[in-house]
Design brief:
There is one protein chain. The protein contains 9 helices and 6 strands; from the N terminus they run αβαβαβαβααβαβαα. The protein is of the alpha/beta class. It has a single domain, classed as Alpha-Beta Barrel (TIM Barrel). β1, α2 and β2 form a beta-alpha-beta unit. The radius of gyration is 19 Å and the shape is globular.
Length: about 170
């Protein structure tokens, strides 16, 4: 699988565990000349008080890091302190928990500018309108389920305008 991913453009996010460290050996294998560690971002379940040793190991191995499941300003500031590369915010999970996800994103975008903080990745987007909202807010990256991705990029023209444009061409 890693050989397949190394050929794809972009960065690849890989989840690790806080409970087990068997992933260290697997990530060390990515250290040989066959792989470009820059392409891989390691997602750390973000418990600020438990991640110190893990962040140290990942930095020594040369990987980019992502604090994942960040829901509070204190978690974000912990990621700033550890010089994490990305912060993953789970938008719909926040909303279902009664949190104002968009307001939180605006707040951490301000902190990102002040502290040269981690890039902000928004995941768990379930509604078309939410995609527009977070993109307009200025987040760095989003992840979308395939069905929402398809819906989001459908072309919508009022009153058959696409056909009219085509007729005007001819």
């Amino acid at each position: 699988m890693v050989d397949f991913l190394k050929e794809l453009r972009g960065r690849h996010f890989v989840q690790i565990s806080l409970k087990r460290y068997d992933w260290v050996e697997k990530l060390e294998e990515l250290g040989d000349d066959r792989y470009n560690r820059e392409k891989f971002v390691i997602k750390i379940p973000w418990d600020t008080l438990r991640v110190g040793e893990i962040v140290k190991i990942l930095k020594e191995l040369g990987f980019r890091t992502c604090a994942t499941a960040v829901y509070t300003i204190s978690q974000y500031m912990g990621a700033v302190g550890y010089k994490i590369d990305y912060t993953a915010v789970y938008f719909d999970r926040m909303r279902r928990s009664g949190m104002d996800a968009l307001s939180f994103i605006h707040d951490i975008l301000k902190l990102q500018n002040i502290h040269d903080g981690p890039k902000i990745l928004v995941a768990s987007l379930k509604r078309y309108e939410d995609v527009d909202s977070v993109l307009k807010a200025g987040v760095d990256s989003i992840t979308l389920p395939l069905d929402l991705f398809s819906k989001y990029f459908e072309v919508h023209f009022p009153m058959n305008d696409l056909e009219r444009f085509e007729e005007d061409y001819g």
